[in-house]
Amino acid sequence: MKSTRVTMKDVSVAAGVSPATVSFVLNDKPTETISPETRERVRRAAAELGYVPNGAARALREGTSRIVILNVARLPHGGTGLAAFIDALDGELERLDHMLLVRYRPGSADIERMTAMVAPRAVLDLDRIYNSPDAETADGGWTEGLAAHTAVQFRYLVDLGHTRIAMALPTDRSELDRLAALRLDYAARILAAVDLEAPLPLVMGRDLDEDRRALSDFLDGHPEVTAVAGLDDDTALRVLAAARTLDIAVPQRLAVIGFDDAGAGELVSPALTTVRIDTAGFGRRLAREVLDLPADDSAAAPTPATVIRRQSA
Fold this sequence. Notes:
The chain contains 14 helices and 9 strands. The longest helix is centred in the N-terminal third of the chain and has 16 residues, at about 80-95. Helix content is about 45%, strand content about 10%.
């Protein structure tokens, strides 16, 4: 059966120009002197015909495909922050005529095999970044990375007058060990800067009964703790639910703050105070960085992390 795929020659016939002109326009060659009217006519013809560039041929010409690989294997997938980051990264890459391929399988061998298959323009291995010894500098550190976001969370509690703080962690941290260790380390340094002790880890359970026992035992052993910072919103919400079943007054006896503003926090009572991170802004900016493009108005610098103040703290 003859292929019905629209070719560059079809576009040239519809636009009344040469195939070379079509190539220059669709590949956005700024060095070619083609009038704006002709460029618009070619683009309109391509859109009307449903022309799709031959990615394999273009990859051969450029020596690389227009695919960017993102590996997020061991990062927590449940929160809205990572989803917003991926959506924004994908959207900006698509706007720049590239495609995002997201991989969730851990291991460098898997990424190397995929790289050999598709010859990507770039590989963004967030899994390796957050699980490597140099993670602090790799993710932006104290300027606008994970350390800076953690500082916003803990300094808020310190400014409220809390001097003994815990960090709530999920019970199954097999995929979060490195991330939890990073956040605990950052928090310890933030508190040390104001002569306070490192945060105590509060490991929550697998269900509400286990959460209740975990929080009760923790506060019995550490009655001096007056505030809990969650590793993420989900963990902070578990603390809130356990406190409610134990008749622990929030925030009077125990202040609770989440991290990454997953959305559900405003629907509970008391509503969860949290830290909002402009993950979409980071995604848009990263898309241009991996393509070696300067920032523009469509990918403005991410806004600083901010505290969304609600009733729990």
